[in-house]
Amino acid sequence: MVPPMPAAPLVSSSISQRSVDPRKRLLPPTRLELLPSDVRVVRDYGPQPQPEHLRDVRRGEVQMFSPKSASHLTRTARNASPALVSQFCLTYHEANPDGETAKKHLNSWLMALRRAAPGAGYLWILEFQTRGVPHFHVWLTVPYSEALWKRLGAAWNRIAEPTSPQHLWWHTEERRDARGKVQRSMLDWDMKGAGYLRKYMSKEAQKCVPGGFGWVGRFWGCSRGLVPDPVTIEADDLTAPIEDVTRTVSKWVEARRRRGAAVARKIAAERGREYQAVKLRPTARASRSSGWLNNAAPALLQLLDRLEPLEVQGADRSDR
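^ thats the sequence. predicted structure below, dont judge the formating
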């Protein structure tokens, strides 16, 4: 009689597909780049070949205000140094120029700005009114003053519509709306955080190009040097592992996002509105490539103050 075989285990080896945390497959950061508000986490993957289908592609005309361009715009405004503290609105009354003519008008006005306020930084965006006419919002690093407002308003009238008295009145005179609020073509500007800035500067309805409008060109631009060169912090200069520094700052950013979402949800409930949930994107801690940590510069500087002194390439931390 053959002796019975011993009971075999149901599974002789593990067959489960264990998921691996994607952050464990990432290359460690090589350096941090510090701007006035944001921090860029840089991972050096070396030169990457361009995809085959993009090698012979030429850039065409700008047709829309893309989300990537909106993100770049917001980052530029948030990290402007000195900060943007005033806003000028350039409109048309009777004229309806095409894109090329409007950009020539804007360039002439910016030359007048350089003469009126030497060294002033600026950031401009193109939008369209409901009747399809272009207009510009220009943010400046110089504060509002009545003399500057009058001079720049008269300059825009001389450039855009010199024969329109109403155009001159709108850009050089003060008025009040139905609620009694003062309205001028030039106003003081308070940043009020990145969320407010993104909502104000990225109004999709005013970025739709009207049919038949020729030569749109760029939707926004800024003066040279508006955003300073980043301060570089190499991994070897830190007294703590750069992975730990990045993880700590990323968690601070993620907690700040969750807190902001909770406040927005509470405000919507108090006002009886439906809360529009926004999917929170992963931070640079979980990104496969280099990434940004928005508004993380204060947290990084506070963390570095708790570490031993370090040498920063490009600038002194204490001056930021």
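Confidence is low (pLDDT under 50) at residues 7-17, 310-315.
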